[in-house]
Design goal:
Layout (H helix, E strand, L loop, with lengths): L5 H15 L6 H17 L15 H4 L4 E2 L17 E6 L2 E2 L11 E6 L16 H8 L3 E7 L9 E7 L6 E11 L4 E10 L5 E11 L4 E9 L4 E11 L4 E10 L2 E10 L5 E10 L4 E10 L5 E10 L4 E10 L6 E9 L7 E10 L4 E9 L4 H9 L4 H17 L5 H11 L1
Parallel strand pairs: 1-7, 2-6, 5-7, 6-8, 7-9, 8-10, 9-11, 10-12, 11-13, 12-14, 13-15, 14-16, 15-17, 16-18, 17-19, 18-20
Antiparallel strand pairs: 2-3, 4-5
Helix pairs in contact: 2-4
């Protein structure tokens, strides 16, 4: 028999007491939250013994007695990206509708308390500890529906702001986006903090793209030391829908993002791009899964990373093509340039192909600076430090140049180059 450790028992007692101290809106929500809590308590936080968590060190958060944030009096918020948009403001895990208006007529937007929350798309057995934690302690959920045949003129700018000055807090939010038939929109998620107080945050985003719909989705991570963030994205695509997703890690401390795209009907298109820059002893981790379940699907994935100092970057990308499907195309590429001899990169692009009628390619590179290129630039009067900076900037531009929104591109060029 395996005995639970003393730290594990104390950790469970803390989260159980915290859960019992909360008020719940309905018996239905309470039972669902209890189920999620029981899964979390029985499984505990993941460890490096589990293959999926082998390269991510989360030891610093395991035995911390985190408390939930509290909603405070709202204050004026300046959006980090100055642009014409429809703002959706979350502060420390709570939605502030008074800071988020006006809403365009083409969307239905609801801030949903726990009593009205739908059951999650994923089965409990498919979730990890941070998803169980999210569901057990969820503070608020936002449901956004883009109406049929609507084309939003302004992006939806979801600002997730960490501004609490207390230590050892945690927050948990859920956003669901539904694009009805032939709808299109641009959605920006921006995790932002200027404080270095310890904060654990989980974030679940569920996206449904109905027939012929189109979504461009940007997720920017701009966090400070001691901000620990675990994001989960689940996108379900129906016939002839298209999604273009971008992940930009501008700065972070401990970050993992799960990206799951399910092509459930024919002729769907999935594009996923990412650029990650890390410093100091930060960790950034991407877990990508694209599942081609039907025919004539297309997916393109390209992620670039530039870890510096003693930071670590992990990339695990899986493309699945189901048995019996026809004419699917997929490409998966991860390119890395370590900027320090002490930086660590773990990359694992994987194809799981169960159909013969496919066109697929995948690859990964970890490249040092080419001495011949450096010497060539030196011969043109460019010193080595500047030459390396030019190479990294060109490497980063490969991803940033795919951004169509002018204001977002300008912001990224300022922050990441």
């Amino acid at each position: 028999m395996i005995m639970a450790s003393k730290d594990s028992i104390m950790n469970n007692e803390h989260y159980l007491q915290l859960f019992e101290s909360l008020s719940h809106d309905s018996s239905h929500a309470l039972e669902r939250k209890k189920t999620a809590l029981n899964h979390f308590l029985s499984e505990g936080f993941p460890s490096k013994k589990q293959e999926a968590w082998r390269y991510l060190d989360i030891s610093k958060i395991i035995n911390v007695p985190y408390r939930l944030t509290k909603k405070t009096v709202n204050k004026k918020i300046n959006l980090p990206i100055k642009m014409e948009c429809n703002p959706l403001i979350f502060i420390n895990g709570y939605f502030y509708p008074e800071l988020s208006k006006p809403y365009p007529e083409d969307i239905n937007l609801f801030s949903i308390r726990t009593k009205n929350l739908k059951a999650s798309t994923l089965e409990q057995k498919e979730k990890n500890a941070f998803q169980h934690l999210n569901e057990a302690f969820l503070q608020e959920s936002l449901l956004i529906t883009i109406k049929k045949n609507s084309h939003l003129n302004r992006p939806l700018y979801f600002l997730n702001l960490f501004s609490n000055e207390e230590q050892f807090l945690m927050s948990h939010i859920h956003v669901e986006i539904i694009l009805e038939e032939s709808a299109s929109a641009v959605f920006i998620e921006h995790d932002f903090s200027e404080l270095s107080n310890e904060h654990l945050h989980t974030h679940q985003t569920d996206i449904t793209l109905n027939n012929h719909s189109l979504l461009t989705h940007y997720h920017l991570h701009e966090l400070t030391k001691n901000n620990y963030v675990f994001n989960h994205l689940l996108a379900t695509q129906k016939k002839e829908s298209r999604i273009e997703h971008f992940t930009f890690v501008i700065k972070n401390q401990l970050f993992r993002q799960f990206l799951n795209f399910n092509q459930t009907e024919d002729q769907t298109t999935t594009s996923s791009y990412g650029l990650m820059r890390t410093m100091d002893n930060a960790q950034a981790d991407i877990q990508l899964n694209i599942n081609h379940q039907r025919n004539h699907g297309s997916s393109t994935s390209q992620f670039h990373t530039t870890p510096n100092q003693t930071s670590r970057i992990n990339f695990n990308g899986i493309i699945e093509v189901n048995k019996g499907t026809l004419k699917n195309k997929a490409s998966l590429l991860n390119k890395n340039i370590p900027l320090s001899s002490h930086a660590e990169i773990n990359t694992k692009p994987v194809f799981k192909i169960y159909s013969e009628d496919v066109a697929c390619s995948h690859g990964a590179t970890i490249s040092k600076f080419d001495p011949e290129v450096i010497n060539f630039l030196n011969s043109r009067g460019i010193e080595t430090t500047l030459a390396k900076e030019m190479i990294v900037n060109g490497f980063s531009h490969e991803i940033i140049d795919k951004v169509k929104n002018k204001k977002i591109k300008e912001y990224l060029l300022e922050k990441m180059l």
